[in-house]
Fold:
Amino acid sequence: MEAIASPRRRQILRLVWGAERSAGEIASTVRDVSWPAVSQNLRVLKNSGLITERRQGTHRYYKADRQALGPLEVVLRQMWARDLGRLRQLAEEEAGKKRHD
Amino acid sequence: MEAIASPRRRQILRLVWGAERSAGEIASTVRDVSWPAVSQNLRVLKNSGLITERRQGTHRYYKADRQALGPLEVVLRQMWARDLGRLRQLAEEEAGKKRHD
DNA sequence: GACTTAATTTAGAAGTAGCTTAAATAACAA
DNA sequence: TTGTTATTTAAGCTACTTCTAAATTAAGTC
Structure:
């Protein structure tokens, strides 16, 4: 539960929701945070059983365990939608400010 | 979301789930924590819109806003059940230890 | 007004979460 | 072996959360 309380982890969870992704892909997508930070969050998610890990060569692939997520899926989708809404709102405010410069 | 991540707040939420309760009732039920701590948690819950407040005289009554909780209800019930399970498990371990003394 | 009861606010301490940088591991290639 | 790439671990820092104790507000009573 505390696992999905973190916005950062929700962001990561969304990335590995549909498809398996390597730690590197995830880290370079997130971008506003260091690789170790991503790695640490991946571990938290893995330890709470919310994602699975598969190693292959030097790569590690992560994927959301939607079975384990159960009823949290609904909550997550709701929060992702809300996050998008906030982003749009921020963008609009930004545009509004620009217009008044 | 961060609001229900705290075990303390989940405990409080369960108390005000079925019926309205005054801050005092809640605080004296929780017991292993000071009144101000309860009061602060109530405020967090109220600010996230998860509970409602009704003032009457010197009393303030709180109640879970089940509408606002929406899909979180399922998750909460699951966690409460898990909490109970943990309690039972602890009790059984305790009993087992006693038997071997 | 002075007193009591109900509850909150404030101030500060202790613990924890999430981040960063630097160092370490692990698999593979030359 | 040495080097390279992918990723994690370690150590340390800062900010936030949750708690306590003390002070404060607010409503009602004498």
User: Anything to note?
Assistant: The interface with chain B takes residues 1-2, 4-5, 70-72, 74-75, 78-79 of chain A (CB under 8 Å).
